[in-house]
Amino acid sequence: MYTDALGGDVLCPASSIEIDRVDRSGWYAILDGFDDANIFQTWDYGRIAHAGRELSHLVVRRDGRPVAAVQVLLRRVPGIGGLALVMWGPMWHPRGQEPDHAALMTALHALKAEYTDRRGLLLRLLPHVSQADGEAVTAALASLGMRFREEKAPYRTFITDLNADEAGLRSNLSHHWRRGLNKAERMGIEVVEGSHAELLETIDDIFVETQRRKGFKAYDSRTFTRINEALPPRRKMRAFLAMHEGRPVAGVVVSLFGTTGQMQNSATLEAGLRVNAAYLLQWRALLWIKANGGLRYDLHGVNAQTNPGVYQFKRGLAGKHPVETLHIGTFETPGPLPSRLLVQSGESMRIHADRWKTQAGAMVNRLRNWKPPQAEPAPAEEMDPGDAAVLAKAPTGPA
């Protein structure tokens, strides 16, 4: 332990702390040095997805080499306070090495010293750490006085291990998933892949239609399309579009930073459901991640209660013995009273606004989907055999 330039005790000997000393290109060079890098720690995600926030960057170096790093999103009201938000950080797995717990502790101490103690902000962290690996991290956060936010549900997902060869990966799929992939490969689907804007925009359109069909609104995928346009060429996302009978029917978009690929967008039209297009696209995306150095594929969130069909689909892709991964959740410092009151009031207003938009959207959907009452259908025994055959072809696979 020693005392750094900020006057705080840290646990990483012979290290130095740099704050706001890198530009955009320098930050991407630092990201390249971490196995746990992710899109939420990129400069362009912060600038575009959180427009209106300032970007701040903290780097822990040992012998001149980054051993921990974190991007912080700041929203401040001068003279009052504000929020310092960390999305899926700090990064503390230097590429090709074991996770550096000492560097993580140094980064956590420095975050609290800089953003809470010196700048007077409420510090909120969403660490990219699973509960299975998070006992030491949770203890470290507690030692800094950071409390777990019970009202924020932790991130929950399935992760596919990509260490086997292609044949091994295929044999590890669940029986149902492998059968669905076999069907998709017989249906004459053409897969178009790339990173250009037109391809991602086509998938955005499919996503909008999928949300309308299912009656929900999760997020605006077009934000990630704008982020992709800004990302450096070798860090752009990869899009996979399924074409059937000359029409786009499904799409998947993935990102790869560090050694974990992540699904960023996935959507399927009804025509794509009938030919199992999602199975083929996810398989192609998985193989692309592996071919480009990925060791894992994060399937981007699951919820067995609210979306059971997609839950089962992702569970089958995760393998024959899938383990549901749960992050440790959201933590925050109490922060100075002005910052706490400012953040709480802003979030309360946003919750009410979101609730109103959700209710208004549901009403619009009901009006859009309203149909006049239909006459009673013919008894089953009088139904035309051709109609019965059509009804028997239930769509397979999730959106």
Automatic annotation (TrEMBL):
**GO process terms (BP):** cell wall organization; peptidoglycan biosynthetic process; regulation of cell shape
Q: Which residues form the BioF2-like acetyltransferase domain?
A: 176-315
SUPFAM superfamilies documented for this protein: Acyl-CoA N-acyltransferases (Nat) (SSF55729)
Q: Mind listing the UniProt keywords for this protein, alphabetically? A: Acyltransferase, Cell shape, Cell wall biogenesis/degradation, Peptidoglycan synthesis, Plasmid, Transferase
The record's annotation in InterPro entries points to: Acyl_CoA_acyltransferase (IPR016181), BioF2-like_GNAT_dom (IPR038740), FEMABX (IPR003447), PG_Glycine_Bridge_Synth (IPR050644)
A Pfam family cross-referenced in the UniProt record is Acetyltransf_6
The GO terms this record gives for MF are: aminoacyltransferase activity
Give the region (Disordered) as residue ranges.
Answer: 371-399
> Gene3D superfamilies, from UniProt?
3.40.630.30
Which family is this protein grouped under?
Answer: Belongs to the FemABX family.
How is this protein named in the record? BioF2-like acetyltransferase domain-containing protein
Organism annotation: Azospirillum baldaniorum
Q: What is the lineage of its organism?
A: Bacteria, Pseudomonadati, Pseudomonadota, Alphaproteobacteria, Rhodospirillales
